[in-house]
Specification:
Elements: H1 2-12, E1 13-19, E2 23-24, E3 29-30, E4 34-40, H2 52-60, H3 67-77, H4 90-99, E5 110-114, H5 120-127, E6 133-137, H6 143-151, E7 157-161, H7 182-185, E8 200-205, H8 212-224, E9 235-242, H9 243-250, H10 264-272, E10 273-282, E11 305-313, H11 327-338, H12 345-351, H13 356-362, H14 376-389, H15 394-408
Parallel strand pairs: 5-6, 5-8, 6-7, 8-9
Antiparallel strand pairs: 1-4, 2-3, 9-11, 10-11
Helix pairs in contact: 2-6, 4-5, 8-10, 11-15, 12-13
Amino acid sequence: MEGLRGLVRLGRYSTQCTAVSGFNIATGFSNNRTETRRVSGARHYATVARGDSSTLDAFKCLDMSDRDEVIKFLRKNSSRRAGAVYVAEQRVADKVVDCLGGDLSNERALIMENNAGVGILTQALVRAGAQRVVALESQRKLLPVIEDIAGTSNGRVHAMYADFFKIAAEDRAKVVPPSITPNNLLADLPLAEWTDDVTVKVVGSFPINFRERQKLLQFAFMMLDGHPLFQKGRIELNVFMSEPQYHAMTYTYQQGDTSRKYQLISVLYQMCTDITLLHMEPRKSFEPFIRRKGASSKPWYPDDNICFVKITPKRDLFTHGVTKHDGVLFAFIVRLLLASPRSLIRDRLEGWNLDGERVLGEIGLPLDTRAVFMSWRDFISLVRVIRESRVFDDVWLRDEAYDFISKEQSISY
């Protein structure tokens, strides 16, 4: 009777447990690791074992050679709202490894896989000789799968509940996974200089169709601003992205083009990084995880493939006119100039109380120059003259720049 009274008292305000392998109703605790949250009443006793154990059991019965079966498993255990791209075929995983160089046994950089999924690419990296792989997974249900793979890798794979493209500010009071701070993500790496060799290679995908452009801009802004993420050295991205965003990054003006293809993202990535297209995979290879959102808002870009792209920050980025902590100001001024890409730069400068003819002559540009005609090197020269003229108050300019980044691009600084 005393035991029954205890259970009734527990039932008034108790804790629901999601068990790994069963629930003991007599004690109110699961037999193994648990995840808890507060609930009320008899719902405590109606809990059905689910989550970690069922996902892992289903994974162990999975035929990894059957693409349809793998996709069905991923669809059941992940959210498509996150825009994640999961490698569901061994053929694609092998192609990614080939693009990384094939033999990874001598790879000195830490390999960080984003959206590890069911570990097809993870295991391909290990077979290729990779000695240090950090497998990041942002879907809680899939985490036990990666932990199981890590447990049989002889220490070569480490699983983390995180998303590389959800970097949180270090001073944030509370960071909720899969968001993660740079110090937690790269805790075991020593400090490194920007001019050192690449220290981390990220393999995975941008959140395609889900703020992809914002995440690309976020990465560029963090490079330019000396973000803590880069205190451990340069980070190379080897990522899947949509074809429109790849073309936006690499676009250069062509005579007679009247579209608005030339964007801030074009200038920043051509200035900050070396971009290499490694592979193009048909979009259907990634179904059902990447679906078009109706008609493209930029119809001049093709949208039939997913591009696997290497993005390497330039070793000499901060030696040709851009300095750390002033890079964001550069990006903001370029954004102002590209707001009206076909307007004469001379007119824009005179609107800012500058002698447009003198400025353009000083940097060697013709009087009929428009923003779409300018290379990133031209922008560096122009922004340098604008900064030296003191036409903008530096405090105001910095405030406006960071306001632009934090509000329009949803980036925490």
